Amino acid sequence: MKTVKDILLSKPTAYNIIDPSALVIDALQMLNSVNLSYLIVMEGDIYKGIFCERDYSRNVILKGRSSATTRVEEVMTRDLPLVDVSDTVEHCMNIMNSFKSRYLLAYDDQKFEGVITIHDLLRQVITNKEAVFDHTLAERLLAHDENGRVY
After folding, report:
1. CB 3.0-4.6 Å disulfide test: which of 38, 47, 101, 136 passes with 52?
2. DSSP character at residue 22
3. What element of type H or E holds 52?
């Protein structure tokens, strides 16, 4: 069964890292340039949080803050569920569902290793669909009538 470590190894090197003291406007420009929904907030080698589109909408726009003067550390998400690099994809899906989170923080002992996203898990499910979906159910869902129409 696939693990968090497998997912992290399949991901490219993270270039979506920003300093907590950066301005939100700079974070938004970086989000746009890396074409991702989140940035990892790091102070040197120390994980501090993530900044995502949801943080911007809820903690900047809806609170009337300015992107040009607000710092990432003022609006970032700090409390995300943790998983270990040895945890399975299924465990991650259950944790994500339980906490209603789109992101999980992956650790190896006390060392931050990366972020697991809902998209990472969906890619695993799609790649390994034979192991996830019941083949007979799929056939029934794609059943055809006598005229060849899918019903």
Report:
1. 38
2. S
3. strand 46-52
Helix (H) or strand (E) holding 18: strand 17-18
The three-class DSSP label of residue 41 is strand
Q: Which residue has the tokens 């040009």?
A: 68
pLDDT tens digits, 114-128: 999 999 999 988 887
Cα torsion angle, 70, 72, 73, 76, sign: positive
**CATH number, span 4-141:** 3.10.580.10
Q: Report the predicted TM-score, pTM, of the whole model to 2 decimal places.
A: 0.80
* Helical packing angle, 118-127 and 89-99, nearest 10°: 140
Q: Are 59 and 81 in contact (CB under 8 A)?
A: no
The domains of the chain are located at 4-141
Q: Could you read off the pLDDT of 72-99 as tens digits, one per residue?
A: 999 999 999 999 999 999 999 999 999 9
Q: Output the six-digit token pair for 138.
A: 């799929």
- Cβ proximity of 22 and 8 under 8 Å: no
